[in-house]
């Protein structure tokens, strides 16, 4: 399973679960990039059948509806969907 790491300002552990074809996922990824935030992301739809079950289990922990994007900050805060204001507030940027 391959996580992609974007370098930037360390604001704690920032994880993005996304779909490669999702407009809102891409907007969220671009927002984090534009803000210069260090984060890791994974395109769930590009995973092998073996890995997809494990990752979807992680996503369901934060978002039982299993919709995307899902941003998890410091294993405490979860933001579902493209919520620019909430992301900025959670990351204090």
Please name the defining characteristics of this protein.
93 residues; alpha+beta; Glutaredoxin; 5-stranded mixed beta sheet; 3 helices; 23% strand
What can you tell me about this protein's structure?
The protein is α+β, with helices and mostly antiparallel strands and 93 residues long. The protein has one domain (4-91): Glutaredoxin. 37% of the residues lie in helices and 23% in strands. It contains three helices and five strands. The chain has helices at residues 23-34, 49-62, 84-91; strands spanning 4-6, 14-18, 39-43, 70-73, 77-80. It has a five-stranded mixed beta sheet with strand order 1-3-2-4-5, with helices on one face. α1 (23-34) links the parallel β2 (14-18) and β3. The chain is globular, with a radius of gyration of 12 Å.
Summarize the structure.
The protein has 93 residues and is an alpha+beta fold. It is built from three helices and five strands.
The topology string of helices and strands comes to: EEHEHEEH
Total strand segments = 5
CATH class label: Alpha Beta
The helicity comes to 25-40%
Mean pLDDT, to the nearest integer, reads: 96
**Structural class from helices and strands?**
alpha+beta
The total tally of domains equals: 1
The radius of gyration is 12 Å
Structure annotation, total helices: 3
Poorly predicted runs are: none
Which helices and strands, and how do they pair?
Layout: E1 4-6, E2 14-18, H1 23-34, E3 39-43, H2 49-62, E4 70-73, E5 77-80, H3 84-91
Parallel strand pairs: 2-3
Antiparallel strand pairs: 1-3, 2-4, 4-5
